[in-house]
Design goal:
Layout lengths: L24 H13 L7 H30 L11 H6 L5 H16 L11 H26 L2 H6 L20 H20 L5 H18 L8 H6 L10 H10 L10 H6 L6 H10 L7 E6 L14 H4 L7 H4 L2 H10 L6 E8 L2 E8 L3 H4 L5 H17 L4 E4 L6 H4 L3 H6 L6 E3 L2 H11 L6 E5 L4 H12 L3 E4 L2 H10 L9 E3 L7 E4 L5 H6 L5 E4 L13 E2 L4 E3 L18 E3 H12 L13 H10 L3 E2 L5
């Protein structure tokens, strides 16, 4: 939002929320109906193609978003090395409003001008005229409009909204108040309306021109330099005809320079080119790929969860993961993406910085169900081991294993890779000690009895052991779970602290995978569910309280938090991810994998000391 929002700041369809696209429905349906029912010459291809062109714009922008986020996480050629936070993501979440506006304008123009319905696909003279009108009137008028928007009044009430993003993303290019967009649409309509009125327009000229504007806008705000030096070496005059990402980035950091739209020639003519433009361009080209100190290795939850990654849909990635009907409807596309990743490698998802440490999250391109298929164990282990060896080769201090990357049957909580590669310098951490600490510190003070249910794991055994030693009775309803726990705890003085019962009246349940709906329904009202597993239980009770899976809130100084980690709330991090960071900060030169458990109290104290905090209960 601008410092002091002026009139026509909000978009008129803002109250409609996600239903705003229904505005286009009548036109879209009518265009399809008309094309089907009318004969030959009466059919209008331009009318039918308006909606596909809107979809193309959405797809084009999304490709830029994903590509830019991947490249800036990688670090190579990055221009501005600062963080993006949730506030910016929320502010830029309405980037598609301008696409909706363009759709309305296209339909109105179609209804208004008689020559549009039978516009040809291509006209050479129309394309040339569009190019000339853009290079002349559009670029010239935009330059002076842009300078006017930096006048105190207009900047304060309108344009400052756009400049709130110091570190830009492709979609930052279209984040403006509604009134400002109207001015831009009038400006960009000059080539299109002129060619229409002169009878020289074509489908390719209009769609191509809009695509050109989107491409240049996205490129100028992508925050990584992508135009190679050889382009300007071979064609030196191009520096006057096309800007670079670093050129426009200076406008966002310096404010009073580099006003041009896409052609810097007007900055050269009127003396507003930033003198450091060439220097920043060269510096950005030399920016190497970033080598992190810590890596967290995770994987996908479901095929559809690719849309929830920060490389996917930004609005979804900024919220805890939930399954939505319209995302499930995209499963064919998600499945096709997964097929291309069948023999893929882990890739960089995001980067963070904390206490001068560079931290990255890498993703293994597999999802939960694939980890549960034993016949896939070998291929998954190969991907994980490859990532560990890459980390070791790059001198990364610690690699933490997230979700099922630390499975017992898969790799014995990561021990497999240590045994295969005894000379590893990178320390492999499963975070089990911090997970235990988180679970234990969620037990309400004064608790004397807990109900213990779920598939038993390394964390489960240590939690149950610690509870017994704390004098808290551990109750389980399954005889086989009791026997396994009893065998593990035989060396602990526990008295009658481990018992079998089917009363289900305990107010605190410590649960893992395998907890059923029927069991949850037996819990008394107000029961507190505390998960110890990697995945959360499905919440069947609205009258009970549920904690998240073991996790902690990150400190405010933990930079570049702009997406949620799976189902966790904003700025929350899984215990395994936090553990990797803590091991690096403390310089603990030890692995935590296999049956090894790091000192629970020590890692909990270190986490609190570095600013990590327990999560509140989620109702």
């Amino acid at each position: 939002m601008a410092s002091k929002p002026g009139i026509l700041t909000d978009w008129p369809w803002k109250p409609l929320g996600s239903f705003k696209y229904l505005i286009l429905a009548p036109w879209m349906l009518h265009s399809i109906y008309s094309f089907i029912t009318k004969d030959g010459k009466e059919r209008s291809l331009p009318y039918l193609l308006i909606f596909p062109s809107i979809f193309w714009r959405m797809l084009h922008n999304q490709i830029w978003i994903s590509f830019s986020r991947y490249r800036t996480a990688n670090g190579k050629n990055r221009i501005v090395d600062k963080s993006i936070e949730f506030e910016q993501v929320d502010r830029e979440s309405n980037w598609d409003d301008q696409v909706l506006l363009s759709g309305i304008v296209f339909y109105v123009v179609y209804m208004t001008f008689s020559g549009v319905p039978h516009m040809p696909l291509w006209r050479t003279d129309g394309v040339i005229l569009t190019i000339l009108l853009h290079m002349g009137p559009v670029e010239f008028l935009y330059y002076w409009l842009h300078r006017a928007l930096h006048h105190h009044y207009l900047y304060l009430h309108y344009h400052s909204h756009h400049h709130s993003s110091i570190v830009t993303e492709p979609i930052s290019s279209v984040i403006h108040p509604f009134a400002e967009h109207l001015a831009y649409f009038l400006l960009f309509s000059i080539p299109q309306l002129t060619t229409i009125l002169m009878g020289k327009s074509s489908v390719v000229a209009i769609v191509g021109y809009v695509t050109y504007i989107d491409f240049m806008n996205n490129m100028g705000h992508c925050n990584f330099e992508m135009i190679p030096r050889m382009v300007f070496s071979a064609f030196s005059f191009l520096k006057y005809l096309t800007y670079t990402p670093s050129y426009h980035s200076l406008h966002h950091t310096e404010i009073r320079t580099n006003y041009s739209l896409f052609m810097p020639i007007y900055d050269y003519i009127f003396g507003t080119m930033d003198k450091s433009s060439d220097l920043l361009y060269e510096k950005s080209l030399k920016q190497p790929e970033e080598i992190p100190d810590v890596v967290h290795l995770t994987h996908l939850v479901t095929p559809q969860s690719i849309y929830h990654l920060r490389l996917g849909f930004t609005s979804l990635a900024s919220k805890p993961y939930t399954s939505k009907w319209y995302i499930r409807a995209l499963w064919p596309l998600a499945f096709s993406v997964m097929l291309t990743w069948t023999h893929g490698r882990s890739y960089i998802l995001e980067r963070n910085r904390f206490n001068k440490f560079n931290i990255q999250t890498w993703v293994v391109p597999k999802f939960k169900k694939q980890y549960l298929s034993k016949w896939r164990n070998e291929s998954i282990n190969s991907l994980i081991e490859e990532a560990i060896l890459k980390a070791d080769k790059n001198g990364i201090k610690v690699l933490s294993l997230g979700l099922f990357n630390q499975g017992d049957e898969l790799n014995n909580y990561g021990e497999l890779y240590i045994l295969r590669n005894p000379k590893l310098k990178t320390k492999v951490v499963d975070g089990s000690s911090l997970a235990v600490a988180v679970v234990l510190n969620r037990i309400p003070e004064g608790t004397t009895q807990v109900f213990f249910r779920g598939n038993l794991s390394k964390v489960a055994y240590f939690v149950s052991s610690a509870l017994c030693q704390m004098g808290i009775q551990v109750v389980t309803s399954h005889k086989d779970e009791y026997e396994k726990l009893n065998a593990k705890l035989k060396n602990i003085e526990r008295g009658n602290k481990l018992v079998v019962s089917e009363r289900y009246d305990e107010k605190v349940w410590v649960v893992g995978d395998g907890l059923t709906k029927e069991e949850q329904l037996k819990a008394s009202k107000g029961t507190l569910f505390i998960p110890f597993a990697q995945f959360p239980p499905k919440k069947w009770r609205k009258d009970c309280l549920y904690y998240t899976t073991p996790a902690m809130m990150s400190p405010k100084s933990f930079q570049n938090m702009d997406s949620c980690e799976n189902w966790l709330p904003r700025r929350a991090m899984s215990a395994s991810r936090v553990a990797g960071v803590i091991h690096a900060l403390e310089g603990w030169n030890v692995d935590e994998c296999g049956n090894t458990m790091f000192n629970v109290e020590k890692i909990w104290e270190a986490s609190l000391r570095h600013g990590f905090r327990p999560l509140p209960i989620l109702t």
